[in-house]
Amino acid sequence: MKILLVEDDKTIASGLEYSLQQDQYSTVLCYDVASAKKVLAEDIDQFALCLFDLQLPDGSGYELCRMVKERRDIPVIFLTVIDDEVNVVMGLDMGADDYITKPFRVRELLSRIKTVLRRYQKSPYTEAIIDIDNVRIHTLEGKVHKNGVEVSLTALEYRLLLIFGNHLGQVLTRNQLLEQIWDVAGEFVNDNTLTVYIKRLREKLEDDPGQPALIKTVRGLGYKVGD
Fold it and tell me: Per the database record, which ranges form the Response regulatory domain (predicted)?
């Protein structure tokens, strides 16, 4: 399994590369945005996961995340010294899957990598097509249509919708949703983050987001989709 590591601090990069290889991952190491873009353009399909430093000498990890998510839905984890809500939300909006703040323990990073990769494994029990009123989820293609028109969702928005689609008619608590999206990986995950993603899904899929008929709030319990 191959990982693209983009980190401009050569000491950190060397240590991470060694640790990843000791854990049986193969790696491609880049020190800047330009070289990473070249590698991705040549063969993005070789990678199972990307680790991007946020602050790079010729740009940022955001740039690389956007490029990856436009081409393939593969996991992206940010490495950064920045630890504030604005940057976390910005990364999540681009479809990033996790966010770890330096300094961190290598074991923690390896654990998060495994958790993220597990979330991307396809379940053989997932239906190929899931219909929810006028919304259709094409699980094999990772696409969503409303009234026959494709709706653009981030990776996390899509996975949240897929959780609802696989539990039609079932009330899901906020904790259940958070556990299934994140496997409780990352201290930045909280109720506010979930609220943001529920709101964005409603804005994209509901006929009237102010009076949601698709993703219903069950007061005091959580959310329910379908009868």
Answer: 2-117
